Amino acid sequence: MSKLVGKWKFESSEGWEEYMKGLDVGFALRKIGGMTKPQEEISIDGDFWQLDILSTFKNIHLKFKLGVAFEEHTVDGRTVQSTFTVEDDKLVHVQRGKPADSIITRELENDGTLKVTFKVVGKEEATCIRKFKRIES
Fold first, then answer.
1. What are the residue boundaries of the structural domains of the chain, listed by start?
2. Which CATH class is domain 2-132?
3. Where would one find coiled-coil regions in this protein (predicted)?
4. How far apart (Å, rounded) are the C-alpha atoms in residues 130 and 116?
5. Cis peptide before 99 (omega within 30 of 0)
């Protein structure tokens, strides 16, 4: 999973509006979120992982151990129980909370692109795919 470690620049997004609607996010916040172009930074220090999502709107900093649930305050204002695991070379982030659970999967594509898939559980149409390119240091 060390292939995911690094800094990632936003490239594209498809389905963000549908994903946010699936989580009952209000109009204004959906529009703001859809306009942001976040940068993601993934690092590992021993047993701990860190995921930083940086944008002009709001920054999120998550530090976690794989398989250990923790409370997360999402950028859209929800409080959820989150758990990260690694499955088939993918970093899988499960958020459990109201109004629905969601699954966010990070994986490396053959061309080196980081593909982040957001899905609202039980709402197949509420899916978003965002892609990021590695920022070379």
1. 2-132
2. mainly beta
3. none
4. 5
5. yes
